[in-house]
Amino acid sequence: MKVKAKLKGDIVEVKALAKHDMMTYDQAKKKTGSSDNANFITRMTASVNGELVYEASTSQFLSKNPIFKFKFKGAAKGDKVEMTWVDLKGGTKTGKGKVK
Asked: What pTM does this model have?
């Protein structure tokens, strides 16, 4: 996962690319004959210095390799933004970036 964070005034703007195939139930059924192979991101969180600043519950309707954008207050240059996603099958991936 790629994470970029920029401080503009007192607001931090974050962009994150979550690399994931995002297979929906319909796509899994067409490809394998069973919807059991569906797998997509179900939860995305972001924290700065251990404090949660973003949380999203997602569904199968995101595109492959989705981009998440959000803003928050309360960080300074050099702080570390850590983002983690969890998919339907329990897989996780974490990405880190510094506030610039």
From this structure: 0.85
Quick one: CA dihedral 13, 82, 64, 56, positive or negative? Answer: negative
Do the beta carbons of residue 49 and residue 72 sit within 8 Å?
A: no
Q: Helix H segments across the chain?
A: 25-32
**Residue 92: helix, strand or coil by DSSP?**
strand
pLDDT band at 61 (very low <50, low <70, confident <90, very high): confident
Instruction: Please give the single-letter amino acid code of residue 62.
Output: L
Question: 3-class DSSP state for residue 31?
Answer: helix
The pLDDT of 31-37, averaged and rounded, is 88
- The closest of 21, 23, 20 to 34, measured between CA atoms, is 23
| Tokens at 13, concatenated | 């703007």
Q: What are the residues whose beta carbons fall under 8 Å from the beta carbon of 3, sequence distance 6 or more?
A: 14, 15, 16, 81, 82, 83, 95, 96, 97
